[in-house]
Design goal:
The structure holds two protein chains of two kinds.
Chain A lengths: L17 E5 L9 E12 L5 E8 L1 H14 L2 E4 L7 E3 L6 E6 L6 E7 L16 E5 L9 H12 L8 H11 L2 E3 L1 E4 L4 E5 L2 H13 L5
Antiparallel strand pairs in A: 1-2, 1-4, 2-3, 2-10, 3-7, 4-5, 6-7, 8-11, 9-11
Chain B lengths: L8 E2 L6 E5 L7 H11 L2 E6 L11 E5 L13 E6 L7 H9 L5 E12 H5 L2 H11 E8 L4 E8 L10 H12 L14 E2 L19 H9 L6 H8 L17 H7 L4 E5 L6 E17 L2 E16 L5 E4 L6 H20 L11 H4 L2 H8 L20 H15 L21 E6 L5 H20 L10 E6 L4 H11 L4 E4 L3 H13 L4 E6 L1 H4 L3 E4 L2 E10 L2 E7 L6 E2 L12 H10 L1 H4 L12 E4 L7 H12 L3 E6 L11 H12 L2 E6 L7 H11 L1 H6 L5 H8 E8 L6 E2 L3 E6 L1 H11 E4 L1 H4 L6 E8 L3 H21 L11 H13 L55 H15 L4 E4 L8 H11 L4 E3 L8 H10 L4 E4 L15 E4 L6 H8 L11 E8 L3 H20 L5 H6 L8 H11 L5 H15 L1 H5 L30
Helix pairs in contact in B: 4-5, 8-24, 11-13, 12-13, 13-14, 15-19, 19-20, 20-21, 21-23, 26-27, 31-32, 32-35
The chains are: A alpha+beta, B alpha/beta.
Chain lengths: 212, 1099
């Protein structure tokens, strides 16, 4: 399969977006600087963080991950845009990857578990959120990754040739929606579908002889 | 300060760094440049406020304070300048200001300014602290009310020249403003150290981030790091290359593992096109189990078939019995082709047998007949040789090990073979299927192929060395097998380091290749050697122009020559003498010619010497090629943190080709395979790290954790591994490097073997004693308590009583519960006696002496289980069947001694082999049985593996052992290909005791292991679903005590029996398991309490 040749840097191209602030609350006179720089971010419609790359001095970044982002809402301030983008991080859903071997700082990549193909992700339940990547220079998502993962959960056999057709159906039925991307991420879709809906979708296509 | 000191410093070769704290305003640019030159690198100047920048690029100004802003940069600097302290408490100051030395690399140079007033009254404290970390300390007066302290940072060695008294005087002297202080100090030159790790980072926290640099760093991140790419794209299966065609029995497991992906197949039944897919995924679920909240991590497997004509979806659940068979009945044939594509085999015995593809010299090795007398011909040929299956298995092993080197260049079938073959391969075969002979032929093939490439011959020598590691009891048997299977090898048995040295020296010059046999237990450690001879006076004598140390025997004083320790020059006499006293190699193993006493002694002082290490070192020094390593019973090396296993790992690494052999390779848990994989296979080590056992278990095994309550901190407890493995372990690992060989396949006509549980009902008195012990331990558990995660506070020996009691409550240890105890006052047995022990003597009144409760054991008393054993042995001996009685609790509990007495008192000829050396065990037991012994008592752990005990066709497990491997291997000792009498295996169980539960668990796990290693598809269901109730022995005992768990053993046996019948149709149909009409085994009649329904066949 072509997707096997993919590398993670095909999907993520870090690009400076802006800096992260702590949102003003009633105890603080204004937004507080965290000293953390954003190099790419993806949000769902509900301003929840799906993926993000953050960099900065390790003290600042550690403090941001350990306290600020856990207890207070944050916002992204872009230099060319006056309106800050609010977001929140739910660490239970995220996997953290860190690079510390930099001379004066540290980089952290946060990825939603739904965007991973790892089989260790076992607690997605009956209504899992899947996130589907696309390459930095392409509009079509890497369907192999998505469907292999979906099949792990619902155990419905699919022919790889069907993937583009099923993807169109997912978009048409509104099961797949686009996420808001900043900086280093180009395209990410969120797929929300139950096991039964998924099974019905595919089986109806088979019965209608659309797939065969 | 006089900066001339900088000139005394020698720059490090590959460059270093300098750190200057709070000194910058006193240093001019030329000084900083000089420092940069002195360290041959950068100078980092730490300032509270950034001042002017230096012109020199090597001088880097950092805004920050010491020490907060250099935290993390330990041992990084070759040179540190530190300014004078401020006014804080002295103790804090010394600690803080000596803290700069932490950032200095060992050997680095410190220049520190200290206020004289600080030093004045605490010179001794300062001196002590300074001299702990610095050496070559010099103190000079800077003339500004401060002293300048210089010194070199010590390494990790102890402060040997720490002399506080002198230093104190020294500092006091310096304190007195002697202007000429440095002048009388000898000129010195200090070579500065290199920075330990040139690429290491330095943390300066206050330095602001350069955003562009950050973006560039992010763009150049190592995105291909294993963890992230593995998690984003999923785990990639390494190429799997089974040795021989996969058995149809494995199809189910491979399909369920999901490695085949979605397959488009046409159903042979309906003719419809279908998409077939199997998937195995991890699940973590919570449950309430016996009032506990538990989390279970396991795997779920499903096989789905989507019919494209009808749109119907059919699901098969391999964890439910019979479902895989239904699936395979329809799809097995279609799957076979796809499986062959997915798993190309190394050797195809049908289309390209060894006679056509193997090189002639290897073909001859395989086809040769055996030598020596007394070899039973199990093959179909005229003379005894390997059977056909063994020949194919041996070929598969050779092809796996040698790759293309094994096959003819014109053989077209094997294009995909690797050029040099695998490093390690495992042969997993039933006990008695001829693994030993097969492995010896494999070794001979390796050596002959090596000789062909390197032109070794009896004229030129140059043979490589091969080693066999085997359990101690198997050493003589293996040596004999080598002599039978091959006249090619010379063998040596090695127990000690000096034996090894001699054998390797011999192997270096030998005419024929040599095989060294080492008992496994000797691998972990061996004795060191120390010379005991001494130098005499006068210490030297002259011999043909040489000075020779005068060494004498410590016993008789005779002169001993040591030719290697001579010298021609007067100057080297001392050195020659020292060599003579330390050169244990040249006199190793030598005895005094006059009195015969050894000139060396073994020592266990100091570091013990591992034979594995020694072998590696000697081979390197002697330039000896290490070719083939056979690890017999390799599952014994699977324990984590074991020296023996570690030694196996070293050995496996040192040899070019390794063959592991085991009858029970699969240990029931994922972690038990992890260690063996890790030690044997290099490719495994590239995928998994040594500390990733828990990850491996999470990936391929089952675990459970329990919610802890009733404590300050609630939460999930530690994970406990449960038996059972994912089918992915089979598809990804097991089939790649393991060649299976079963007895049936090896072509052996085995006699039937039948297993009987023998239930013993305790007498009423015994039942009282059992109940009392139960109540006692229950009370202890309840009062001392155990938490929900089953951390037992009751001692292990208390719990062990539960296990030992049914067989041994006549022992002194259990006198309080034994009815063999008779009260000295009333003469009643203990359960009926009303006295409380210890009792007071009524005649003495208040000043009564306490009568010690000296247990009075009735020598005439025999427990029900002992009598059952006597009956059983008598019954068997009447039929002329000697019995092998396995007793586990020997040693402290000495059950073997007790049983020996009991059997002999009943007129049964008994032999207890507890004292027999392991290498004589097999011969002793067989001789005893042949010469009239009725019962032979032995611990199953000692006689467990490799022995051929065919003279005792009856095996009795007096106790159930928790280790399933021990039970399986023990039972297989008598059930060998050369056995002619039908074999009976009895398990003695006392009713209503924990023995029933233990045996039930063991039988269940035994079935799971058999099904996994036997490679049966349906059986995988049993392995998959092994989550239910497995636990450690301690947990089992605790739950037994606290909850009164009663195990219905009969139903377990029934379940197993029906599962066997249901799951193993071919095996039963072939008559491999005791249902053979020609050799009917009549079950013994009138046993105490044997129920007909429970007599069944396990294997």
């Amino acid at each position: 399969m072509k997707d096997k040749e993919l590398r993670i840097d095909h999907f993520i191209r870090p690009k400076r977006v802006g800096k992260i602030q702590r949102v003003q609350d009633r105890f603080s006179p204004g937004p507080q600087e965290t000293g953390v720089e954003c190099l790419g971010m993806v949000l769902t419609d509900s301003t929840r963080l799906v993926a993000g790359i953050f960099g900065g001095r390790s003290t600042n970044l550690n403090e941001f991950l350990a306290t600020t982002a856990r207890w207070s809402p944050c916002q992204l301030v872009q230099p060319d845009n006056d309106t800050p983008v609010p977001f929140s991080i739910s660490f239970e859903d995220l996997e953290t990857y860190e690079w510390e071997d930099l001379d004066f700082g540290k980089l952290v990549l946060l990825l939603h578990k739904g965007a991973l193909a790892s089989q260790q992700i076992t607690q997605l339940g009956d209504l899992p959120n899947f996130f589907c990547w696309s390459k930095a220079d392409e509009d079509q998502p890497a369907l192999g990754l998505l469907f292999e993962k979906l099949q792990k959960i619902v155990a419905l056999p699919l022919d790889p040739q069907w993937y583009p057709r099923i993807w169109d159906e997912l978009l048409a039925e509104g099961y797949a929606t686009t996420c808001t991307c900043y900086g280093g991420f180009s395209n990410l879709w969120e797929v929300i579908i139950t096991k039964d809906e998924w099974q019905e979708l595919v089986l109806s296509l088979v019965r209608r002889k659309v797939l065969g | 300060m006089n900066y001339n000191i900088i000139r005394s410093l020698e720059a490090p070769r590959t460059g270093g760094r300098a750190l200057i704290t709070n000194w910058a305003n006193r240093m001019t640019d030329p000084v900083l440049t000089n420092i940069a030159s002195a360290v041959n690198g950068n100078v980092f100047v730490l300032q509270s406020k950034l001042g002017r920048q230096s012109q020199d690029e090597r001088v880097i100004a950092i805004e920050g304070v010491f020490p907060a802003d250099v935290e993390g940069s330990h041992n990084q600097f070759s040179l540190v300048f530190s300014s004078k302290p401020n006014n804080e408490k002295l103790t804090a100051l010394t600690e803080r200001y000596l803290a700069v030395t932490r950032y200095l690399a060992p050997g680095g140079f410190l220049v520190m300014d200290i206020d004289k007033s600080v030093i004045k009254s605490h010179a001794t404290i300062w001196a002590g602290r300074i001299y702990q970390v610095l050496k070559n300390v010099r103190v000079t007066d800077s003339g500004y009310g401060t002293l300048t302290l210089t010194g070199v940072k010590r390494g990790n060695n102890v402060a040997d020249d720490l002399q506080v008294q002198n230093v104190s005087a020294f500092l006091n002297y310096a304190k007195d403003n002697d202007p000429d202080f440095p002048s009388f100090v000898q000129p010195f030159r200090v070579a500065l150290p290199n920075t330990p790790h040139a690429e290491n980072r330095i943390y300066f926290r206050s330095k602001s981030i350069d955003l562009e640099a950050l973006e560039n760093k992010a763009a150049g991140l190592p995105w291909d790091m294993r963890r992230i790419s593995q998690e984003v794209f999923g785990w990639k299966r390494p190429p799997v290359f089974p040795a021989m065609a996969l058995r149809a029995k494995l199809y189910g497991a491979l399909m369920a593992s999901g490695v085949l992906g979605s397959l488009r197949l046409t159903s042979p039944v309906t003719g419809h096109t279908c998409i077939v897919r199997g998937d195995s995924r991890r699940v973590e679920r919570e449950r309430n189990h016996q009032e506990e909240k538990q989390q279970i991590g396991s795997f779920e497997s499903l096989i789905n078939v989507l019919d494209l004509e009808t749109g119907e979806l059919t699901t098969y659940d391999p964890q439910r019995a019979g479902q895989v068979r239904i699936f395979l009945e329809e799809w097995a044939e279609s799957l076979a082709d796809r499986l062959q594509e997915a798993f190309p085999v190394a050797y195809d015995p049908i289309n390209a047998p060894y006679s056509q593809v193997l090189k002639p010299l290897l073909r001859n090795v395989i086809d040769k007949s055996f030598f020596g007398r007394g070899v039973r011909n199990l093959s179909s040929g005229v003379r005894p040789s390997l059977t056909t299956t063994q020949k194919h298995v041996c070929t598969a092993l050779l092809i796996k090990s040698l790759g293309k080197r094994a096959v003819l260049p014109e053989a077209p079938q094997y294009d995909d073979l690797p050029a040099k073959g695998n490093h390690a391969v495992v042969l997993s075969g039933d006990p008695g299927s001829g693994k030993t002979f097969t492995s010896i032929r494999w070794l001979e093939g390796l050596v002959r192929e090596y000789a062909d490439r390197h032109n070794c011959s009896i004229h030129t020598g140059g043979w490589p060395l091969s080693v066999v590691i085997t359990p101690p009891a198997n050493v003589p048997g293996f040596e004999k097998s080598i002599q039978t299977a091959s006249t090619f090898f010379a063998t040596r048995v090695v127990y000690r380091v000096n034996d090894l040295y001699q054998a390797m020296k011999e192997a270096k010059t030998a005419m024929t290749p040599m095989v060294i046999l080492i008992p496994r237990t000797r691998m972990r450690q061996s004795q060191g050697i120390k010379a005991v001879y001494r130098l005499d006076e006068p210490p030297f004598e002259e011999d043909h122009g040489y000075f020779v140390p005068n060494i004498v025997c410590p016993t008789c004083g005779a002169s001993v020559s040591c030719p290697s320790c001579r010298t021609k020059t007067q100057e080297n006499i001392q050195q020659a003498a020292e060599e003579a006293l330390t050169d244990t190699v040249s006199l190793r193993g030598k005895n005094c010619e006059l009195c015969g006493s050894p000139l060396w002694e073994e020592t266990r002082n100091g570091e013990l010497y591992s034979l594995a290490k020694a072998l590696k070192v000697y081979a390197r020094k002697m330039d000896l090629d290490l070719l083939g390593l056979i690890l017999d019973e390799v599952h014994e090396d699977g324990a984590p943190d074991s020296k023996q296993g570690q030694a196996m790992g070293w050995m496996a690494d040192s040899f070019a080709k390794v063959l592991g052999m085991s009858g029970t390779f699969y240990g029931g848990m994922a972690s038990s395979n992890f260690q063996i994989f890790f030690r044997l296979f290099k490719w495994f080590r590239s995928n998994w790290a040594i500390d990733e056992v828990s990850n491996f278990v999470t990936r391929y095994g089952n675990w459970r954790r329990t919610w802890r309550t009733g404590r300050a901190k609630e939460g999930w407890g530690a994970r406990v591994e449960l038996p059972g493995v994912s089918p992915e372990l089979i598809s990804n690992y097991l089939i790649n490097d393991i060649v299976y060989m079963s007895l049936q396949e090896a072509g052996f006509d085995l006699v039937p073997r039948t297993d009987y549980p023998v239930f013993v009902s305790p007498t009423a008195e015994e039942q009282i004693a059992i109940n009392r012990l139960m109540d006692d331990i229950k009370a202890k558990v309840e009062t001392e308590g155990f938490a929900h995660e089953k951390k037992v506070r009751v001692s292990g020996s208390e719990l062990a009583k539960l296990h030992v009691l049914p067989s041994g409550f006549h022992l002194h240890t259990f006198s309080a519960y034994s009815n063999a105890f008779r009260c000295s006052l009333c003469g009643q047995p203990k359960p009926l006696c009303e006295h409380q022990w210890p009792v007071e003597d009524p005649e003495e009144g208040d000043e009564a002496l306490v009568i010690e409760a000296d247990p009075l054991l009735d020598p005439e008393y025999f427990s029900a289980k002992e009598l059952a054993l006597v009956d059983l042995v008598r019954k068997e001996s009447r039929e002329g069947r000697p019995c092998l009685v396995y007793v586990y609790h020997t040693g402290k509990y000495a059950l073997n001694t007790r049983l020996g007495d009991v059997l002999q008192q009943h007129g049964i000829r008994t032999l207890d082999v507890a004292h027999v050396r392991p290498d004589k065990l097999e011969r002793t037991i067989n001789n005893a049985a042949d010469t009239g012994a009725d019962a032979i008592l032995v611990n199953p752990v000692r006689a467990g593996t490799g022995l051929n005990l065919i003279a005792t066709p009856t095996v009795i497990f007096y106790q159930t052992v928790w280790s399933v491997l021990t039970m399986m291997q023990g039972a297989a000792r008598s059930h060998r290909p050369t056995q002619t009498t039908p074999v009976r295996v009895y398990y003695l169980v006392t009713r209503g005791t924990v023995e029933e539960v233990i045996l039930g668990r063991v039988i269940e796990r035994m079935a799971a292991i058999f099904l996994a290693s036997g490679g049966d598809n349906e059986g995988m269901a049993a392995v998959f679903d092994a989550v239910g109730h497995q636990e450690t022995l301690t947990e089992l005992l605790v739950s037994y005590v606290s909850r009164n768990v009663h195990y219905d053993l009969a139903s377990v046996f029934e379940e197993l029996n029906s599962a066997q019948r249901d799951l193993l149709p071919e095996r039963l149909a072939n008559g491999g398991a005791g249902e053979r009409p020609s050799q009917e085994d009549v079950p013994p009649e009138n046993f105490p309490d044997i129920r007909g329904a429970e007599q069944l066949t396990i294997f």
